[in-house]
Amino acid sequence: MDSVTGQTCKCFLRLSQPLTLSSPGSHWEISSGLLLEAAGHSDFLARLRLAPELLVILGVALLLSAVWIFILRRTIRAQFATMREWFHCEASLRRQYRDLFDSANDTILIFTPDDEVILDANRKACETYGFSKVALVGTSLKKLTKDVRRGELEVAELVREGTYKNLETIHFRRDGTEINFLASASLVEYQGRQAVLSLNRDVSDLKRAENEKRLLLHDLQKRFKELSLLCKTVKILQDARRPFSEILSELALLLPSGFQFPEKTTARITIDGVEYHSANSVSGVWSLRAVLATSQGRGGVVEIGHIAGISHQETEKGCHFMAQVILREELVPKKGDSLLLTECKQESWKFHPLGKRGVRGGFEGGVITSDAGGLLLREVEKRTGVIAQFAACFTDHRDGERIGHTVRELVAQRVYGLALWYEDLNDHEQLRGDPLLAVLAEKADPTGARPGQGVSTLNRLELTSDRVSEAERYRKIALDPAAVDRMLVEVVLQAYREAPQEIVLDLDATDDPVHGDQEGRFFHGYYGHYGYLPLYIFCGEHVLGARLRPSNIDASAGCEEDLERIVPQIRQAWPEVRITLRGDAGFCREELMAWCDEYQVDYVLGLAKNERLKAWIAGEMEQAAQQYTETGRAARVYKEFTYQTRESWSRARRVIAKAEHREKGSNPRFVVTSLGADAWAAQALYERLCCARGEMENRRKEQFCRFADRTSTALLRSNQVRLYFSSVAYLLRHALRRLGLQGTEWARAQCDTLRLKLLKIGAQIRITVR
């Protein structure tokens, strides 16, 4: 405090670094930006005199602070200048990018990949779509896309792969007109989020020009073919020396069945001053003129524009003649329809004559089919609905507005093809144009250029997996195997008018040879080749189950699972029916017999012979051998006894033995059954019940007559689908035998006989407009 003013003196010092000073009786602490306060001015000066080095230190500190402040200021200025330059460059780049973005001649869109909301668009996009930028930004691109589903899949694939994509797409303008775009899309980062940058080039004019070019080429090829036919027509009219009626008849035969000329077609024939002409007889662009001369000495002139119809009606000497050419088929350009090719197709062939009669072959018969008997199968389908029930087991994931063939039509085409002995899918490349097959498949218009489908579509019935993913584009017709299994049983239940008292279910496993590296194929030691081991379950002549299995398993493997499905379904419809299971020695297993005992199902199963079983019938074998010696004919002696294996069987069971001696020696056979002696005597059970299994084996062989062994696809599931198709074709033809041939000589005919006698019938197909 000042002694005069009584005020406290304060000294302010700014240091760059902390400073500590010590003197006797006082302690000073100085730091940058802190207030140094002395008790008094005189006391402060006195203390400074005691510490002279303090002035030096303070001076140095002030100098260093000034230098540091100067350097810091220059650094900050330089950084500010750099940042200002960066900001200017970024703003310039943004302006240039925006100018480039807005002035681009192609449509540019930036949209979100999830919901395809447009985040930004250039001026060309607004002009192309017909929206203002305010209206366009924020709009979902899905509203402007024709094929929304395809667009979603393309964007999802772009996000998944992370690369650019080139594709063709169709969008809509504001007025509803379509725009064809060739788009190039890639992933970008826009305002801190992932987005899709799409550069779209409008190729509508190019597409329109391509269509016009294709139509022009089509029309040119059409005109060329017409001109070729006209030249042939003139040649016939000019060179022929036959009655006029024969000339017109040959003229009609010259033209292919169903040919159609355009409406400009004209034809005019003048004979002896009498004019005969078509309804629109005017001068044509390609008018041709020829002189006509007939064997009767009549002459005239023929003028042809484009011949569409010639109507000649003449009454002379009581003879009335009328000829008219009616042509109805659309011209479709083919690979060989080139303007530089000459017409060299031979219309007919001449063979060696038969006496004075000529022999000639031609193709004037029109549309011919060799499968007219397929109409019988169609009538069977109308009554049973087998194909319709099978088609209902498929789920169609295709877009219904973009398909030309329903699942039922595809399934019917495949089943009828198998039933008519067309085993390969490749056969349908020609069958697809058969109007009869289109009628069988219930096509609404069997007269189209290709009323049926080819391999590329039909194989989707087999190759589609059980689950169709969202990204799948082609294989979208999935089959439910469980539904087919239920359908096969349901068809059997529908075949009976009333519930039977007893049914017999036959089990049989057979070999299915394969010659490739199919999934699940193994070498079978008994059959001696690679293949499958399918399991069939029959009820009389009906197929109850068809299961394709690998061949490295026991013959009875999996039959309990199928029976657990079949038996409850049968008993639900027929609660009082008695069920008997029949099979060979391959199904004589403790698990199966125990299952039958549990579910109250009787069984008659073959039993493999062994030394213990042979010892049971040693006396009967000697008796049969003695009878054979006396009579010279096969002798059989039957015996029944109770038998139990040492380890495998859980209990003793009734066994029936047949001691047989034939020309080749002894032939002992055994069967095990749950049927009691009061219901079936030993001999009756073996001869009437057990041996009747041979009829089922005939039905199983007919499965392979229907190409059930065409399991040539790579996947086990696809081959199982083929087995289902073959089984349905068998059911259709068996229904023909059951419903249409009862009481005839063909009621028990084999499938080959039915094919030759009933199905493979030649016929001419005529399609009218009514």
Task: Write up what this structure looks like.
The protein is of the alpha+beta class and 770 residues long. Helices cover 38% and strands 23% of the residues. The chain has 23 helices and 33 strands. The strands form 10 sheets. Strands 21, 25, 26, 27, 28, 29, 30, 31 and 32 form a 9-stranded mixed β-sheet that branches. The chain has a 5-stranded antiparallel β-sheet with strand order 6-5-9-8-7. Strands 11-10-13-12 form a 4-stranded antiparallel β-sheet, with helices on one face. It is flat, with a radius of gyration of 48 Å.
Give descriptors for this structure.
770 residues, alpha+beta, nine-stranded mixed β-sheet, 33 strands, 23% strand, disordered N terminus
In short:
With about 775 residues, this protein is of the alpha+beta class. It is about 40% helix and about 25% strand. Strands 21, 25, 26, 27, 28, 29, 30, 31 and 32 form a nine-stranded mixed beta sheet that branches. Strands 6-5-9-8-7 form a five-stranded antiparallel beta sheet.
